[in-house]
Amino acid sequence: MGVPSLPIVSIPHELFGLSDKQIEDAADKLIDDIVRVLTTPREKLIEEFRSKNKLEEVEQKLSRPRVLPTQEKVKSRANALEATAAFYERGWTDGLPIIPPTEELVEEMLQFTDRKRDETVAKLAPRWGKATPEKIAVNAVMAGCLPEYMPVLVAAVEALGDPQFNLFALQATTNPVAPLLIVNGPVRNELKVNYSFGAFGPGWRANATLGRAIRLMLVNIGGGMPGTTDKAIQGHPAKFTFCAAENEEESPWEPLHVSRGLKKEVSAVTVVGVQAEHNFVVWDGRGESFLSVAANAMSAFATNNAFHAGTAVLVMNPGHAQIVSRLGYSRADVQKYMYDNAHISLGSVPRQEVPHYQLRRPKFGWDMHDSFMSITDKPDDIMVVVIGAVGAHGQFLPTFGDPTIPTTRPIAFKDGTPAASVYDFKNRKK
After folding, report:
1. Cα–chain-centroid distance for residue 63?
2. What is the DSSP letter of 331?
3. What SS3 state is found at 385?
4. Where do the H-state alpha helices sit in 221-280?
5. In 81, 226, 265, 427, which residue has its Cα 20 to 30 A from 73's Cα atom?
6. What are phi and psi of 289, to 5 degrees?
7. 286: nearest Cα among 256, 249, 329, 246
8. CB 174 within 8 A of CB 231
9. Taking the alpha carbons of 78, 80, 86, 87 in that order, is the dihedral positive or negative?
């Protein structure tokens, strides 16, 4: 967290499932440590806590190899398999094979940005590491990105570093939440970012490597190490990669980035802290059926949105979007419908859980079992995006809730001027 000598006294296990007495006993055992930390001279504490290598302790617990090569040895590794082993031993990968980030490949990436290689694009929590163009390029090469993907990654890093996105909360939580990148604008086709069949799945280099590059940065720059700062209880495969584009060509509405204040001709990246994907099926081809089924799918008890409210994401395929549009629904109308109809019966919440929900969402009548709670606090908090191909399926993406706010950044030059093409960055270098 940027303060390596900060004295921290902690209960070394999850409190979930413990009785009040067990929690009290666990806290009592810490009293001596708390008193010692409060009464020990500062210089002694700095030395003690700075010398504690928590990462090494956790890696040993996870049986991660500790045969660490020297920096010079890593630099000289030309073989991808050997480089992967070396980087894995240092905790620099997601566990998958990597492309060795040679100076030549990193320099090719840097041709697609007008920023200095060592300037800070954003600071990534919880380590608050400086994401410079050079560090972005290194992780992008490791992920398998092409050089022209660099402008998208710079915009994505800026969005992740925005305080309202609250990356700290996503990186250091027991929740299996992961940033989803949604790409809009002309750059989608220029870089062949998939927005049709299988957009959230495998098969497209841009989707796979852009999302993976972000994950590697969250580990290597942000310090979101599984088992250390990243305390996700069960994890999420989207933490390997999670990136898609919006199907603007087949959408009946303005693109997502336009609804978020940008011009249509501008390319942009939106980051959303997504908890999971919940697929639903609508066999009937009427717009009314889609709206009803989607609202029911979004009425999911125990998601972070039910507990925290915040932004919830409805992913419509273009077929569903078109039939709903033919009923006269705008994107705002769909948001309003879901707000009014995607709700949870308060009577279905187990009584022992009510105090926790009541604390987070107090405005609802928790003493009235026949009342309802909307999945979000206002219609605008339901993000509607068109992704995929025509068919019977849609998706509800519950998010991390109100601890995070989706953030959008244009793909632009350092001075803020939007780029018409990613190749404009390279042309400026000449």
Report:
1. 27
2. H
3. strand
4. 256-259
5. 226
6. -65, -40
7. 329
8. yes
9. positive
Give the C-alpha separation, 235 to 225, whole Å.
12
Q: Is the peptide bond before 355 cis (omega within 30 degrees of 0)?
A: no
| CA angle (310 as vertex; 368, 352 as ends), nearest 5 | 40
Give tens-digit pLDDT for 295-315. Answer: 999 998 889 999 899 999 999
Say if residues 292 and 175 touch (Cβ distance below 8 Å). no
Structure-block tokens of residue 49: 């806590």
pLDDT in tens, 335-368: 999 999 999 888 888 888 888 888 888 888 777 7
- Token pair recorded at residue 44: 């002694």
| Cα separations in angstroms, 400 against 182, 245, 311, 342 | 16, 21, 8, 17
Show the tokens assigned to 388: 């995929």
* Structure token digits, residue 147: 């050089």
Whether the Cβ atoms of residue 307 and residue 357 lie closer than 8 Å to each other: yes
Tell me the pairing of strands 393-397 and 312-316: antiparallel
**Nearest residue to 426 (alpha-carbon basis) of 101, 185, 147:** 147
